[in-house]
Amino acid sequence: MSVKSPGTKSPGAKSPGPGRKTATLGTETIQRGAGGETHQVAGGDVPVLTTQQGIPVADDQNSARIGARGPTLLEDFHFREKIFHFDHERIPERVVHARGYGAHGFFELTESLADVTRADVLQRPGERVPAFVRFSTVAGSKGSSDLARDVRGFAVKLYTHEGNWDIVGNNIPVFFIQDAIKFPDVIHSVKPEPDRDFPQAQSAHDNFWDFVSLSPESIHMALWVMSDRAIPRSLRFMEGFGVHSFRFVNKAGKSTYVKFHWKPKQGLQSVVWNEALKINGADPDFHRRDLWNAIQSGDFPEWELGVQLFDDDFADSFDFDVLDPTKLIPEELVPVRRIGRLVLDRVVDNFFAETEQVAFCTQNIVPGVDFTNDPLLQGRNFSYLDTQLKRLGGPNFTHIPINAPKCPFHNFQQDGHMAMHNPKGRANYEPNSWGGAQGGPREDPARGFTSFPAREAGEKLRERSELFGDHYSQARQFYLSQTETERVHIQQAFTFELSKVETPPIRARVVSHLVNVDIDLATAVAQGLGLEDLPEAAPPARPLVDGLAPSPALSILRNGPDSFKGRKIGILVTDGVDAGLLKAVTDAARAEGTNVELVAPKVGGVTLHDGTLVPAGQKINGGPSVLYDAVVLLPSADGATLLMQEATARDFIADAYAHAKFIGYAEAALPLMERAGVRPADMDDGILKLSTPADATAFIAACRALRFWEREANVHAV
Ligand code: HDD
Question: I want to staple 374 with a disulfide (CB 3.0 to 4.6 A). Which of 140, 174, 244, 705 is the partner?
Answer without folding.
Answer: 244
